[in-house]
Design a protein that fits this description.
Blueprint (H helix, E strand, L loop, with lengths): L16 E3 L5 E3 H67 L2 H15 L8
Antiparallel strand pairs: 1-2
Amino acid sequence: MIGHELTTKSTMLPMGQTKTEDGVIVSEGAALGHVFGGASTVAIDNKIEQAMDLVKSHLMFAVREEVEVLKEQIKELIEKNSQLEQENSLLKAAASQDTLSMLAPSTSQQQQPPPSSSS
């Protein structure tokens, strides 16, 4: 038989349908999705990864800005604290003994821990 090698056993499928490699009959559009689904999934995964990288870079930028603001606030608070400590020392040095004795009970109360209750 001439051309026997070229003939294959085929079944007639309704128009618009095809058979996948594993023998499942599907529409031609689904067959294309089956064939190209891997590439589509990779493209979607790449887009998701790019979006996540973009979100990460925006968050890192925002965090860096916030860190800089907080560092500046800490610097200002340290300077203010130093200034207040100097002012406090100066006022204590200029205060009379009676004034300092009035401060002593309130500062000793603030420094003492509250009494612990035993069961």
